[in-house]
Amino acid sequence: MKKISLILMTLSGFIVANPLDPQNFIAPTQQELQQNQSQKIDDLKANSFYLNLDPKDINAIQKRDEEVRNAFDRFSQKEINYKPAIRPIASMDSINLHPYFTTTILLPKGSIISHIDSSSKMAVLKYENNAVLIRPNQDFKIANFTILYKLNDENQILNVLANFYEKNPQDFQDKLNLVYSYLNTPKLDDLEVLSAYVKEFGSLPKEQYSFIQIGDISYRIVRDEKYGNIMRGGNKYRIDNNTIYR
Q: Helix, strand, or coil here: 161?
């Protein structure tokens, strides 16, 4: 009797779990039908979109996608200086630009810009009061900007040589500046900067790149055997305030 009961229980369990039971053939609900229909419509729309794409549009989308990907792949917090690069005002200077970013130039407080001439066409070139916004075109390589402005009722001029920014793995300090801020402070000559460094630190710079803060301005001292113009202690040095970090 026990064996028969066990067999009946086993058969009963098998019957309940049988996938061919009528209860497993219930018609789908209205919500399930709508979900399936919506999925089919979305698939058809996606297929139609890809089938109707013009090959030129595909190339443009791929190119834009590559540009965006390169923008994020090539730049990070390590390559971009988000703080203003502080520089003394002068009649000539050089900066770096990149087509992915808009660069701001701030002339000394109280300056009023009257005209800007660019040797190359820019995607963005706007100015107001003492501020300039610049973003180069995608094919940008080099350009010269002539900025005419008035400061303390005197006409002034700033010639800026702009180069395409490329990361230099040999110089980890060389960053892309997004803001260049100029102060109405006279720039010290190279020998004065080097003398100030020796006085401050008690020796000549020992690293290839050394920095000293004088007033509001940072100066970079570079050991450069090729272009250095000051010979001291058997080394040639040049003073470069074109890459400054506050």
A: strand
Q: Which residues pair with 140 in a beta bridge?
A: none
* Residue 42: partners with Cβ closer than 8 Å, 6 or more residues away: none
Regarding beta strands 179-183 and 85-88, do their DSSP bridges make them parallel or antiparallel, or are they unpaired?
Answer: parallel
Going residue by residue through the chain, which has 246 residues, state the pLDDT in tens, using 9 for 90 and above.
Answer: 544 554 445 545 544 555 556 555 555 666 665 666 666 556 666 666 566 666 666 677 667 666 665 555 566 667 788 888 888 888 888 899 999 899 999 999 999 999 999 999 999 999 999 999 999 999 999 999 999 999 998 999 999 999 998 876 555 567 888 999 998 887 788 899 999 999 999 999 988 888 888 877 778 898 888 888 889 888 999 887 654 333
Amino acid in position 244: I
Residue 24 has what DSSP assignment?
G
Instruction: Say if pTM beats, i.e. exceeds, 0.85.
Output: no
Q: What is d(CA 91, CA 187) in angstroms, rounded to the nearest whole number? A: 11
Cα–Cα distances in angstroms (integers) from residue 92 to residues 1, 89, 95, 182, 207, in the given order: 109, 9, 10, 12, 28
Question: Measured in Å, how far apart are the chain's first and last C-alpha atoms?
Answer: 94
Extract the tokens encoding 5: 């009961």
